[in-house]
Amino acid sequence: MNENFNQLLSKNARNIDKFIAYGTAGFRDKAIELQHIMFRMGILATLRARVVKATIGVMITASHNPEEDNGLKLIDPKGEMLDPSWESICTYLANINDKELLDSINKLIEDKSIDMSVVAHVLIGRDTRSSSERLHKAVIDGIQAGDGRVNDFGLVTTPQVHYAVLCFNTNEEYGEPTEVGYYKKLSNAFIKLNGENGSQIVANNYIPSVVIDGANGIGAIKIKQMKQFLGNSLNIEVINDGNGVLNAFCGADFVKVQQRAPKDLQLEVGKRYLAFDGDADRIIYFYKNQIDGYFHMLDGDKIAVLIASYLKDLLSSVQISDIDLCIVQTAYANGSSTNYIENILKLPVHCVPTGVKHLHHRALQADIGVYFEANGHGTVTFSNKTVNRIKLCSHETSLKLLNFIDLVNQTVGDAISDMLVIESILRSKGQSIQDWDMLYTDLPNRNIKVTVKDRNVITTGDAERKVLTPIGLQDKIDAIVAKYGPNSRSFVRPSGTEDAVRIYAESTTQDNTDSLAKEVAKVVYDMAYGVGGL
Ligand code: 16G
Ligand code: ZN
User: Fold this and answer.
1) Rounded CA gap, 400 and 348, in Å?
2) 211, 407, 457, 475, 525 from 529: Cα distances, Å
3) Tally of CA atoms within 13 A in the half-sphere of 250 that contains its CB
4) Among 377, 379, 411, 458, residue to substitute to test ligand 1 (most atoms within 8 Å of Cβ)
């Protein structure tokens, strides 16, 4: 450890006696409680970098959560989430006393036989939260305490950090590991697919203009910077671009959960809208339907279906048919989407537990894995074997596929990349957002939560679709669901990010769905507070 270790430690002392765990997507809590955790994770990042002998990433953000929250995600060498086997080490280091810290670190170095002579290279980025700058300094102190080398990216989106980590670790084969490198890679691919003057060219029902709700976050800043690289290929208007409060009544999470447009936005028929979340790794599309005049939303499920059907068509036109192309979803996927994928697209669909790391992991097992959470987080992964096959293919459409692959940020869901992917597909199909929306009709659905004393009394199996404990709860849920008839479904799961149990319901009408969700919430509440004999 660095000779100034104690001095750096005292600057970032642990003043809060509260247990905090590395959750679904890293640490997340009130920003004022995170200083010591940031410092310790800076140290840990230097150790992880030495173990894997590669560049590691750190992103400071609490994504779609309120401005006063913050968080930290660690990014492994291929740009993917931290290896789950290290999550318990993070939790352990985050919660010990300052006095135990140095000994614990030395023990970890010994247990894992970490070669401290290896250069530890850590890439770091942060979002626009007012606390992010202070917390970012604490991470840098930690990297210094661990004698690591910092590569400070400053203000960036989460997916930009994931991208840059992979670029470093592939010797730039994936792209240039800079922000400009990111903009150039994506813009060049987009321009090749859509034309330099795409913004002037309407393709059947496709109009080349979008309105982006930037959630008052980093995505708004970055898409504006990217405009100069995209040139005339797409018309982009940005709203909620930083003048308001981050994620407040706007952004992808608000639109998805509230099932309505961001506050103060008067939707106009014929316009295509989309929302990023606070760190720009989620995207949700929406519009005002010309026929019924209502707000309609196209979520991660509809995005996955659009992308997979496009890829299926392209693969068949280049005559590559024996490819394992699959879609990965979670229990939150709308039943209509799963039905469409299985029965109309006739593609395999896999269901995994909530959290990007699970989806990403499953997608990597396929030749081409399209994964999306209903909340709009997702991307596509292409195996090296598949990319090589496409490169060897002489069919002229293969070039289109290769450009498409370049447009995808394969490391993680990326709102900017996803938007450009979707826009390219809609243009290529000559479709409006309304045409896309008509692929299938979502079943009405509802997400609610019950705050409980201990969410961990609930454990689940079958990719979170069934409760395992407490025994008897699943039977009660089954009995309630049965009353609502076919196409009704509900499941409950402990949140991975807050002290709550989440309840999901879908059924054939919104009234039935809401009442189903309430009934299930009631049995969960009674169970949590000891009523009802469970
Ligand atoms: C995190 C996850 C997201 C998941 C959500 C579930 C990542 C990068 N993010 O935000 O994928 O949908 O948690 O939250 O993995 P919950 O467990 O509170 O429902
Ligand atoms: Zn996010």
Assistant:
1) 24
2) 46, 50, 11, 18, 6
3) 29
4) 377
Contacting residues for 441 by C-beta, under 8 A, at least 6 apart = 336
> Which pTM does this prediction carry?
0.96
DSSP secondary-structure letter at 124?
A: E
First to last CA, the chain: 52
Give DSSP secondary structure letters for 445-482.
Answer: EEEEEEE-S-GGG-EEETTTTEEEESTTHHHHHHHHHH
Tokens representing 378 are 């997702």
Burial class (CB in 10 A: 0-12, 13-18, 19+), 37: buried
Can you say whether the dihedral through the CA atoms of 96, 354, 386, 157 is positive or negative?
negative
Q: What is the mean pLDDT of residues 272-286?
A: 98
Q: How far apart are CA 448 and CA 504, in angstroms?
A: 7
Question: 115: which DSSP letter?
Answer: -
3-state secondary structure of 371: strand
In angstroms, how far is CA 146 from the centroid of its own chain? 29
CA distances, 388 to each of 55, 331, 368 (Å): 26, 33, 13
Asked whether 256 lines ligand 1 (CB < 6 A), one says no
Q: What is the mean pLDDT of residues 288-307?
A: 97
* Placement of tokens 């036989």 in the chain: 113
Is residue 202 within 8 A of residue 236, CB to CB? The reply is no
59 neighbors 161 (Cβ within 8 angstroms): yes
3-class SS of residue 273: strand
Ligand nearest to the CA of 215: 2
Does residue 63 have an active-site annotation? yes
Spatial distance between the Cα atoms of 266 and 256, rounded to a whole number of angstroms: 17
Average pLDDT of every residue of the chain:
96
Probe target for ligand 1 pocket from 418, 497, 501, 503, with the most ligand atoms within 8 Å of CB: 497
Question: Is the bond leading into 470 cis (omega within 30 degrees of zero)?
Answer: yes
The rounded distance, in Å, linking the Cα atoms of 168 and 183 is 16
Ligand located closest to 278 CA = 2
Is the Cβ atom of 375 under 6 angstroms away from ligand 1?
A: yes
In the set 63, 233, 336, 488, the catalytic residue is 63
At residue 84, what are phi and psi to the nearest 5 degrees? -55, -25
What average pLDDT does the segment 271-276 reach? 98
Closest Cα to residue 247, out of 237, 265, 262, 225?
A: 262
* For residue 452, pLDDT beyond 90: no
Would you call 514 exposed, middle or buried from its count of C-beta atoms within 10 A (0-12, 13-18, 19+)?
middle
| Pocket of ligand 1 contains residue 25 by CB under 6 Å | yes
